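Hi all, long-time lurker, first post. I run a small reading group and we've been trying to get comfortable going from sequence to structure in the token notation. Rather than ask abstract questions, I figured I'd post a concrete chain and ask someone more experienced to write out its structure so we can walk through it together at our next meeting. Sequence below, copied exactly:
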Amino acid sequence: MFEFDTVLESTTPADELEEVVMGLIINSGHARSLAYTALKQGDFDGAKALMEQSRLALNEAHLVQTKLIEGDQGEGRMKVSLVLVHAQDHLMTSMLARELITELIELHEKLK
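-- Answer (accepted) --
Happy to help. Here is the structure in token form:
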């Protein structure tokens, strides 16, 4: 794993920062995928189990994002790259998708 303090240093190798960024992308993408699978599940207990897995994956990604933000402290210590912006975009769209899918599953359950 990586140390957030070293990732924020200007001398940090690009591959360490890339590992952090890929963790954001992979975990948020996995969370979104699980949520969409839950939506199509048809079995509400199965859907809830998938949504819990989705929540855990999203929490993991959000923890990484929070550590990066805390480490930067609004001082521009983190070198911003296009791939980091892309990772943030993945995380935010996954969070939104999960919220909407949660509502859709609850609505489907009420209608049955």
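A couple of things your group might point at:
The mean pLDDT is 86.
The chain has four helices and no strands.
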